[in-house]
């Protein structure tokens, strides 16, 4: 009887009152959203950061270098997962993701203070790289802690539903970053935004972090972990238990190659690569391209909750693998349709509306710069502005609606693969090493396979000249993951933790 009582106590504590679970979700989600916001400002402003922190002699190479620096933050996430996962399994979930929150916020704030390449030369990209590494380490420890914390408070039969709120934070973080950038951009002239306004979203992060810290510091430790720590059953070496144990290592590898890497490429294709494709391949104007992505994200976000709840009823595996397969089959026609909308060679220009404008403004050095812009207007309502080598296309309202729809469909794929994965990973590993074990495959799948996607795909497009060549990578990874997942994934939905 004594053993039975001991086993039942954590299960009982993991089914809290409705009020308590929503407090847990709010506090965890608020902090995670802010960390994603901090992390994604960099990617959302990649085009401007390329101009500010890298040598101006080759704009294409500077943009690729910026994407590579962005990707570095993802590559180090697995190391953050190991460092902070170990801390979370030994010390606790709560204090670990408080630490990651402060580290992320401080790094983001500091990026907003770095002088430009014009001012300090090669030191600028070096400082950006160092701070990007710190961001990646922090995020590597954040997600596993937040997802584990919420899951260990959730009732067994609704774990997918409750953890899906954590899953919304990555997309909402991107949405908030785009919203803050757009509001900042629209509150000043393009020249002022280009000179100093782009720094404001970075600097604002310190206020958001302080607010989130205040919310999180009042949380209690996860009941499952607290009970385990009280009984002296916490792991003394979670890294060894997670990766030195053959059976657990097998689960880690299945989680990576059967779920996380496919989920990672679908997530980044449907959101970040979509934004990169609009801005760099289609040359869609900055405000319009960000608005298109933001609307698609806003429309798609409720589907995280829908698919999270559905996974409690029909299983995590079916939804995730279906999302990977449908995405892989749909990407070529979707991006082909997007590319045609932006292809000015297939549009008819209204020659009577062609004009040339000159504009003078001060650059960062205070020098007066005069630019000449050639403006082409097309019969479908699109307008192309050419300033030197820079092209900026504003598409018609109808075409912008089509672009929102095409990206919204991609966001649906994102919600299918991403909504159930937190519950799936939590259910896969035992409590004593859960933080460490689930964080590593998740962050390799997202950080390495997903995080490298914009860089790899942009290079493929640049090398081949084919606008759709960048899709080879996400389609290939998604299909491999679908096959592995179909053969080896086991669904443990609703099982006691």
From TrEMBL:
Gene Ontology CC terms: plasma membrane
Domain of life: Bacteria
Pfam family, one: Sugar_tr
Domain (Major facilitator superfamily (MFS) profile): residue spans on this chain: 24-493
Keywords: Cell membrane, Membrane, Transmembrane, Transmembrane helix, Transport
Name of the molecule in the record: Predicted arabinose efflux permease, MFS family
Keyword Transmembrane helix: yes
An annotated Gene Ontology molecular function: transmembrane transporter activity
Organism of this sequence: Chitinophaga terrae (ex Kim and Jung 2007)
Localization of this protein: Cell membrane
InterPro entries (alphabetical): MFS_dom, MFS_sugar_transport-like, MFS_trans_sf, Sugar_transporter_CS
Membrane topology label: Multi-pass membrane protein
SUPFAM superfamilies named in the record: MFS general substrate transporter
Membrane spanning residue stretches: 21-49, 61-84, 96-114, 120-140, 161-184, 196-215, 249-269, 289-307, 319-338, 401-428, 440-462, 468-489
């Amino acid at each position: 009887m004594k053993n039975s009582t001991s086993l039942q106590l954590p299960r009982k504590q993991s089914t809290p009152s409705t009020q308590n679970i929503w407090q847990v979700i709010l506090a965890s989600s608020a902090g995670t959203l802010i960390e994603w916001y901090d992390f994604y400002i960099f990617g959302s402003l990649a085009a401007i950061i390329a101009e500010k922190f890298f040598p101006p002699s080759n704009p294409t190479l500077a943009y690729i270098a910026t994407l590579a620096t962005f990707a570095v933050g993802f590559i180090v996430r697995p190391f953050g997962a190991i460092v902070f996962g170990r801390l979370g399994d030994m010390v606790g979930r709560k204090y670990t993701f408080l630490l990651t929150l402060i580290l992320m916020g401080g790094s983001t704030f500091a990026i907003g203070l770095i002088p430009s390449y014009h001012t300090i030369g090669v030191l600028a990209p070096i400082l950006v790289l160092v701070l990007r590494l710190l961001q990646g380490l922090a995020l590597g420890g954040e997600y596993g802690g937040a997802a584990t914390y919420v899951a260990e408070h959730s009732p067994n039969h609704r774990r997918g539903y409750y953890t899906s709120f954590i899953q919304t934070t990555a997309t909402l973080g991107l949405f908030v970053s785009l919203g803050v950038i757009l509001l900042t951009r629209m509150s000043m002239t393009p020249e002022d935004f280009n000179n100093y306004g782009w720094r404001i979203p970075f600097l604002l992060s310190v206020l958001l972090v302080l607010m989130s810290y205040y919310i999180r510091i009042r949380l209690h430790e996860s009941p499952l972990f607290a009970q385990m720590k009280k009984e002296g059953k916490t792991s003394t070496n979670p890294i060894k238990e997670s990766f030195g144990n053959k059976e657990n290592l097998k689960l880690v590898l299945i989680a990576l190659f059967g779920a996380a890497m496919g989920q990672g490429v679908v997530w980044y294709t449907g959101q970040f690569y979509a934004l990169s494709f609009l801005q760099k391949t289609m040359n869609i104007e900055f405000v319009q391209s960000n608005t298109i992505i933001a609307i698609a994200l806003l429309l798609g976000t409720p589907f995280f909750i829908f698919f999270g709840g559905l996974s409690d009823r029909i299983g995590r595996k079916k939804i995730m693998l279906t999302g990977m397969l449908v995405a892989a089959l749909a990407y070529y026609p979707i991006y082909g349709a997007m590319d045609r909308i932006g292809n000015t060679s297939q549009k008819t220009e209204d020659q009577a509306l062609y004009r040339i404008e000159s504009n003078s403004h001060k650059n960062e050095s205070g020098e007066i710069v005069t630019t000449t812009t050639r403006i082409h207007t097309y019969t479908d309502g699109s307008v192309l502005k050419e300033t030197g080598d820079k092209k900026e296309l504003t598409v018609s309202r109808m075409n912008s609606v089509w672009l929102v729809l095409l990206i919204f469909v991609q966001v649906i794929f994102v919600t299918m693969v991403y909504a159930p994965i937190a519950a799936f990973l939590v259910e896969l590993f035992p409590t004593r090493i859960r933080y460490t074990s689930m964080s590593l495959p998740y962050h390799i799948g997202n950080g390495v396979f997903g995080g490298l996607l914009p860089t790899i795909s942009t290079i493929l497009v640049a090398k081949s000249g084919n606008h759709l060549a960048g899709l080879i990578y996400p389609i290939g990874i998604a299909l491999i993951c679908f096959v592995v997942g179909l053969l080896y994934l086991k669904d443990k939905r609703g099982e006691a933790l």
